[in-house]
Amino acid sequence: MRTNAVARVAALIVGLEGAALVALVGWQIIALASGDTVSIESALALVVFTAVGAAIVIAFAVAIWRDLSWGRSGGIVTQVLILAVALGAGTGAYGHPSTGLLLAIPGIAGLVLLVIAVRDAGRRGGDSASG
After folding, report:
1. Is 31 within 8 Å of 43 (Cβ atoms)?
2. C-alpha angle 82/90/29, rounded to 5°?
3. CB within 8 Å of 8: residues ≥ 6 apart
4. Nearest to residue 72, comparing CAs of 16, 7, 4?
5. Does residue 128 belong to any structural domain of this protein?
6. Looking at the domain assignment, is residue 113 inside a domain?
7. Among 112, 84, 107, which Cα is nearest to 20's?
8. Which residues lie across from 68 on neighbouring strands?
9. Which residues cross the membrane (predicted)?
10. pTM attached to this predicted model
11. How many helices (H) and strands (E) does the chain have?
12. Helix (H, G, I), strand (E, B) or coil at 39
């Protein structure tokens, strides 16, 4: 069924984004342990917030895979936030357009697939909105 395939690919993209956040947490912990931080308190807070964000994005991926509407909604918000980060990374005084583009590609792909999955779920009418 096309709908399940689209939602599954979207879930994989969101899951990979969550895995990237987990890798970022690891990198932050290594930087913290090696003393490559100015403020330990700020670095710890950033590690905690990034870890919470990673858990939430992974939860969205699992919910999308299970065809739950809250996962698709959260996934769409995640993609919009990724696109905002991509815009910031690609522009400005220290911006690198190639970095912005590398961030934007999965954000756009995930957003398009999630919108298609939402539309298809609405057509089916069997959407499990309550989870």
Report:
1. yes
2. 60
3. 65
4. 7
5. no
6. yes
7. 107
8. 128
9. 9-30, 42-64, 76-94, 100-118
10. 0.89
11. 4, 0
12. coil
